[in-house]
Amino acid sequence: MFDLLKTKITSYISLEPNELDLLDGYFEHRVLKRKELLLEEGDVCKFIAFIDSGTIRHYHTKNGNEKTCDISFAGSWVTDFQSFNSGAPGIMNLQAMETTEVSVISNKKLSELYALCPKYETYGRIMAEQVAQRLVAQAAQAQVVAAQTQRDLAAADFKRFSDLKTQGFVS
């Protein structure tokens, strides 16, 4: 069990067979139905999940509207990182977009695994660094989109002003 998870981890760190077998006692296998929530906004996130198969949508609600922030596929990790680390209520929903299988480890069991085999803590650091890099890239992309939107709005305003000037409404 947990074959894809084990393959993913060993692509980053070397583990002895007995160290790899530790995962069987720390992860829980779950099957989510389409549209089932793995995490609901406002709940404290007490887990990290690895997607074995399927797809997870990350979204939050604003003024009653769902805003999708990300989509994760098989072979990816999902959590509300800030809530997981701080114990604060989560700010997002994690929802299966189709039947999705995940391997879940609780915060408590993850700490136990780190203490038992420090190689897993090294892997956790590598994954955290990748999350940080991804967040920086997403923030940079959001700034590009915002700048483009501001340019588009300014161009539209200029065109409207030009049209009003042509029609004699402004001088």
Characterization of this structure:
By secondary structure, the chain is an alpha+beta fold. Helices cover 48% and strands 26% of the residues. It is built from six helices and eight strands. The chain has helices spanning 3-10, 17-21, 23-26, 81-86, 107-116, 118-166; strands spanning 28-32, 37-39, 47-53, 55-62, 65-73, 77-78, 93-96, 100-106. The strands form two sheets. It has a four-stranded antiparallel beta sheet with strand order 1-8-3-6. A four-stranded antiparallel beta sheet has the order 2-7-4-5, with no helix packed on it. Strand 4 (55-62) and strand 5 (65-73) form a beta hairpin. Helix 5 (107-116) crosses helix 6. It is globular. The mean pLDDT is 86.
For the biggest β-sheet, the strand order reads 1-8-3-6
- Straight-line distance between termini: 75 Å
SS class: alpha+beta
Helix and strand run = HHHEEEEEEHEEHH
- Helix run count: 6
Rg result: 22 Å
Helix content: 40-55%
Number of E strands: 8
Which whole number gives the mean pLDDT?
Answer: 86
Low-confidence stretches: none
What about the largest sheet? 4 strands, antiparallel
Q: What is the beta-strand fraction?
A: 25-35%
Shape: globular
Q: What is this entry, summarized?
A:
The protein is an alpha+beta fold. It is built from six helices and eight strands.
Which short descriptors sum up this protein?
single chain; 171 residues; alpha+beta; 4-stranded antiparallel sheet; 6 helices; 8 strands; 26% strand; globular
Fold topology:
Layout: H1 3-10, H2 17-21, H3 23-26, E1 28-32, E2 37-39, E3 47-53, E4 55-62, E5 65-73, E6 77-78, H4 81-86, E7 93-96, E8 100-106, H5 107-116, H6 118-166
Antiparallel strand pairs: 1-8, 2-7, 3-6, 3-8, 4-5, 4-7
